[in-house]
């Protein structure tokens, strides 16, 4: 049986434009998880260089949600440019300018950007607040203390 897709209502996020030259975040296609964030600066990243880049935007993410700043795969694949602190966390209470902590991982080539270039994407998600409670004992599980490759993997590395 074919069922109609569930359409989730959009979460309203107020945006304050600090720079009129920069567009609001926008989804390139219906169904995209990330809304593109644009550069408010013209700049060049030398090989290995990183920079905190202005987006020209401040925003009001509703309580109970978070904005996660993800890299764009095209920039990473074509130029080796990605986020240093990926994904960046935009807290709901943050009212400052959203900035992008970018790095050029290409060992040989510099890359230049213009105002308005799409540099990263904002994924908005609900968040659950934890109540951290100290206990004497943790429950047993099949995984137990196994981690950091305990299930194997990387066959070529043995
Ligand atoms: O890529 C990012 C990551 C963070 N922020 C802003 C929004 C976020 O709410 C705030 C704090 O981020 P985070 O908690 O990751 O940084 P911190 O080093 O823990 O700083 P703080 O002590 O201010 O929490 O900085 C950005 O603009 N871009
Ligand atoms: Mg913090």
From TrEMBL:
<feature type="region of interest" description="Disordered">
    <location>
        <begin position="135"/>
        <end position="158"/>
    </location>
</feature>
<feature type="binding site">
    <location>
        <position position="85"/>
    </location>
    <ligand>
        <name>substrate</name>
    </ligand>
</feature>
<keyword id="KW-0460">Magnesium</keyword>
<feature type="binding site">
    <location>
        <begin position="72"/>
        <end position="74"/>
    </location>
    <ligand>
        <name>substrate</name>
    </ligand>
</feature>
<keyword id="KW-0479">Metal-binding</keyword>
<protein>
    <recommendedName>
        <fullName>Deoxyuridine 5'-triphosphate nucleotidohydrolase</fullName>
        <ecNumber>3.6.1.23</ecNumber>
    </recommendedName>
</protein>
<dbReference type="GO" id="GO:0046081">
    <property type="term" value="P:dUTP catabolic process"/>
</dbReference>
<dbReference type="Pfam" id="PF00692">
    <property type="entry name" value="dUTPase"/>
</dbReference>
<dbReference type="InterPro" id="IPR008181">
    <property type="entry name" value="dUTPase"/>
</dbReference>
<comment type="pathway">
    <text>Pyrimidine metabolism; dUMP biosynthesis; dUMP from dCTP (dUTP route): step 2/2.</text>
</comment>
<dbReference type="InterPro" id="IPR033704">
    <property type="entry name" value="dUTPase_trimeric"/>
</dbReference>
<dbReference type="GO" id="GO:0004170">
    <property type="term" value="F:dUTP diphosphatase activity"/>
</dbReference>
<feature type="domain" description="dUTPase-like">
    <location>
        <begin position="23"/>
        <end position="152"/>
    </location>
</feature>
<feature type="binding site">
    <location>
        <begin position="89"/>
        <end position="91"/>
    </location>
    <ligand>
        <name>substrate</name>
    </ligand>
</feature>
<keyword id="KW-0378">Hydrolase</keyword>
<dbReference type="InterPro" id="IPR036157">
    <property type="entry name" value="dUTPase-like_sf"/>
</dbReference>
<keyword id="KW-0546">Nucleotide metabolism</keyword>
<dbReference type="GO" id="GO:0006226">
    <property type="term" value="P:dUMP biosynthetic process"/>
</dbReference>
<dbReference type="GO" id="GO:0000287">
    <property type="term" value="F:magnesium ion binding"/>
</dbReference>
<dbReference type="InterPro" id="IPR029054">
    <property type="entry name" value="dUTPase-like"/>
</dbReference>
<comment type="function">
    <text>This enzyme is involved in nucleotide metabolism: it produces dUMP, the immediate precursor of thymidine nucleotides and it decreases the intracellular concentration of dUTP so that uracil cannot be incorporated into DNA.</text>
</comment>
<comment type="similarity">
    <text>Belongs to the dUTPase family.</text>
</comment>
